[in-house]
Design a protein that fits this description.
With 259 residues, this protein is an alpha/beta fold. A six-stranded parallel β-sheet has the order 8-7-6-9-10-11. The structure holds 1,4-dihydronicotinamide adenine dinucleotide, pyrrolysine and magnesium ion (MG). Pfam families: PylD_N.
């Protein structure tokens, strides 16, 4: 998995506010509203223990602090433990945490220890970014382009198929493209034979993955992918509604999914 850097997380509160205002413009709902509608849950100030994890590449500067900001932003009662790892988990539970948030290099989980529900960041991120894209108020058709069909992109594509969209998908990994075609019934997208879309969902770890030929004026590009899928120049040229944020949207999707 591509790991975040401390730089990605600078001023997460401002990044969240900006993302929230784009989501409102695109869908008519704020991020909380999308989560409520998606999961049918709403938070009642749940206590969330955030446990730093030192294994593998270790602690990412700003990661736990950003999760703290994110929990507060969305109305949860978050706290970061003083100790990391097993001692941190123990500390979180001792201090009344109802939900645990913790991540190593492979898995970022939310575990509601009261009701037993558990969420993984990758599918929860794919599902909410796809859901936001699917709610675009000015969409001109039910056609959606999905770029990247990996651990985030596949569940996002599944969400769009389930909602009745005509999903075109592309991944340079032929195995993953084949899996999405046979399991989800998506239409393989051929970059050499492009068409325009008003809704695009992207989930890759690469920059500039969106060819100019697929962009329609004022299209929505909903993308958790880091780095960003589109250049500033193309974004401005087509007046793209860009939903992109490094951690908070995926995290709140996890939290709502375990309530
Ligand atoms: P993954 O490695 O499972 O999937 C990425 C897929 O993108 C691969 O299958 C790869 O073949 C494909 N790909 C590469 N270049 C492409 C191109 N030009 N066009 C189409 N597909 C292309 O990675 P995963 O876990 O799905 O993560 C995707 C991205 O999302 C990463 O950058 C990750 O850091 C980011 N992410 C962001 C989150 C957020 O909250 N913003 C949360 C979780 C992940
Ligand atoms: C959750 C993000 C989204 C993109 N990549 C994922 C990532 O960076 N995962 C690693 C998280 C490690 C956190 C570290 C800490 O500070 O506790 N162990
Ligand atoms: Mg996010």
């Amino acid at each position: 998995m591509a790991l975040l850097t401390p730089n990605d997380l600078i001023n997460i509160n401002k990044q969240l506010q900006e993302a929230d205002s784009v989501v409102k413009r695109v869908t008519g709902l704020d991020i909380k509203g999308v989560c409520q509608s998606l999961y049918g849950t709403s938070p009642s100030s749940k206590k969330v223990g955030i446990v730093p994890v030192t294994s593998g590449n270790g602690i990412i500067g700003n990661f736990s602090a950003s999760l703290h900001v994110i929990t507060q932003y969305f109305g949860f009662d978050g706290f970061v433990t003083d100790m990391p790892d097993v001692s941190g988990y123990y500390e979180a539970v001792q201090n009344g945490a109802e939900i645990i948030l913790m991540a190593d290099d492979h898995t970022f989980l939310a575990h509601n220890i009261k009701n037993g529900k558990m969420a993984n960041n990758q599918p929860c991120t794919g599902i909410i970014y796809a859901e936001i894209a699917s709610r675009y108020l000015k969409a001109d058709s039910k056609d959606v382009l999905v770029m990247g069909l990996g651990k985030v992109g596949f569940p996002g594509a599944a969400q769009l198929v389930q909602k009745g969209f005509r999903v075109y998908g592309y991944d340079p990994d032929a195995r993953l493209l084949k899996r999405a075609v046979s399991n989800l019934g998506i239409i393989p997208f051929d970059p050499a034979n492009p068409k325009k879309f008003s809704i695009i969902f992207e989930a890759t770890p690469c920059a500039n993955t969106i060819p100019e030929a697929v962009l329609s004026e004022n299209c929505v590009l909903s993308t958790p992918g880091i780095p960003c899928a589109i250049s500033e120049e193309l974004k401005n040229k087509y007046d793209v509604q860009l939903v992109a944020e490094p951690l908070g949207i995926g995290t709140v999707s996890m939290l709502y999914s375990v309530l």
